UniProtKB/TrEMBL annotation:
Highest taxon of source: Bacteria
Listed PANTHER family: INNER MEMBRANE ABC TRANSPORTER PERMEASE PROTEIN YDCU-RELATED, INNER MEMBRANE ABC TRANSPORTER PERMEASE PROTEIN YDCU-RELATED-RELATED
Protein name: Putative spermidine/putrescine transport system permease protein
Bilayer topology annotation: Multi-pass membrane protein
Cellular-component GO terms for this entry: plasma membrane
KW Membrane (keyword) present: yes
Length: 286
């Protein structure tokens, strides 16, 4: 008698299938409800199928501005975050004194483990007109009047970049460890300076890791909600805040659902474009 063994892989993919089913069901409900209009109080939607909500999302100036500013700001903030994370990862991996890298790693880990609300209120205190940053700048004589960091993109960008930094740094640490130092040493032995070695040797080898990091932090930045709400003070809006207001302030679930669907498609398209450009750049450099 032959006993057939069960395939263990089906048990491994079961959690992923459950999560995938939940996500598909949620977005399926959003897509379905977006085809109706707002109902009376106590109801979610009424009427016949219509594309009115999508027309409002796509052809209203304020909606276009929020969507495009979310995509553009997320990309710029992600690039700034990576520019900060690259030297941090290099120091962590290649510091001559290991305790230096350990301290930086510990600081990033503490930041990563602290909650978003804690970080948001910390930046409110630091970036206020009488916050530590402005007091320090005034004390050093750099500025005469406080710099307005809050309720604009400057403060929101700083907070989001700080939130993204652990994601970028931890991802790049692995990429830096995979670099081959002998190639850089060979370039230095042939007379290349440190700057030349970094831009002509190190960065091309690090490029695949940079592109993966960019896609990761950009995806996280797109969903920013708390930092624009607290540090933006209503003057800086991202698409997540728009969806929240339409659901819990206006109680217009179909309009919020249409906004979410448009945002999801826009996010996927922008991520695909970034990945496409990244592959072209990698081929051009290699």
């Amino acid at each position: 008698m032959i006993v057939q063994r069960s395939d263990p892989t089906r048990f491994l993919i079961t959690p992923a299938l459950i999560v995938g089913l939940f996500i598909v069901s949620a977005y399926g409900y959003f897509a379905f409800s977006s085809l109706f209009l707002k109902g009376l109080p106590g109801t979610q939607f009424v009427g016949e199928l219509t594309l009115e909500n999508y027309r409002r999302v796509l052809f209203t100036g304020s909606n276009q501005y929020v969507l495009l500013s979310t995509l553009w700001a997320s990309l710029v903030i992600s690039l700034i975050t990576i520019a900060i994370a690259v030297p941090m990862a290099m120091v962590i991996v290649r510091a001559k004194r290991q305790w230096v890298g350990n301290i930086i790693m510990l600081a990033i880990a503490v930041t990563f483990l602290s909650g978003s609300v804690t970080r948001a209120y910390s930046w409110l205190i630091l970036l206020g007109n009488k916050g530590l940053v402005n007091l320090g700048l005034s004390g050093l004589g750099i500025v005469d009047a406080p710099i307005r960091f809050l309720y604009n993109w400057t403060g929101v960008g700083i907070a989001i970049s700080h939130y993204l930094l652990p994601f970028a740094a931890f991802t790049l640490i692995g990429a830096v460890r995979n670099l081959n130092p002998s190639v850089e040493e060979a370039a230095r032995s042939l007379g290349a300076g440190r700057a030349t070695v970094f831009w002509r040797i190190t960065m091309p080898m690090l490029l695949p890791g940079l592109m993966v990091t960019l896609v990761l932090v950009y995806s996280v930045a797109l969903a920013s909600f708390l930092f624009p709400m607290l540090l933006g003070g209503g003057k800086v809006r991202m698409i997540a805040n728009q969806i929240y207001d339409r659901m819990f302030v206006e109680y217009d679930i179909p309009y919020a659902a249409a906004t979410a669907v448009v945002f999801l498609i826009s996010a996927f398209v922008s991520i695909w474009l970034i990945s496409f450009v990244a592959k072209k750049v990698e081929k051009a450099v290699s």
